[in-house]
Amino acid sequence: MTSHKGKSPMDKYFELNNETPYSEEVAQNYDPSSEHVQLANYQKELALKNRKDDCESHSSYSN
C-alpha cells in the first residue's frame, strides 16, 4: 500500500493543487491573535491556565 493510494506523487500534487490555498491567500486570512501558543512543557501550561481561570473567577466576585 502506498501513501498516495496507488497514485504517483505528481498525480497527488495535481489532485491537491486546486484545493490548496496560495500563501498570499493564507496571509490575508491569517489572524495571529486567534492562535494559541503551545508551551513545550504541558504541566507548566496547565498550571498557568488554572491560575488564569482562578484569577478570572475571583475577579467576577468584585463586579
Give the tags.
3 helices, elongated, mainly alpha, about 55% helix, about 60 residues
Descriptive notes:
With 63 residues, the protein is an all-alpha fold. It has a domain at 38-63. It contains three helices and no strands. The longest helix has 18 residues, at 42-59. It is elongated, with a radius of gyration of 22 Å.
Radius of gyration: 22 Å
- Tell me the span between the first and last alpha carbons: 62 Å
Number of H- or I-type helical stretches: 3
Return the structural class: mainly alpha
Largest sheet features: none
Whole-number mean pLDDT: 83
Unreliable stretches covering 5 or more consecutive residues:
none
Percent of residues in beta strands: under 5%
Inertia-based shape: elongated
Helix content class: 40-55%
The total strand number stands at 0
Written as H for each helix and E for each strand, in order along the chain, the element string is: HHH
SSE layout and pairing:
Blueprint: H1 9-17, H2 23-29, H3 42-59
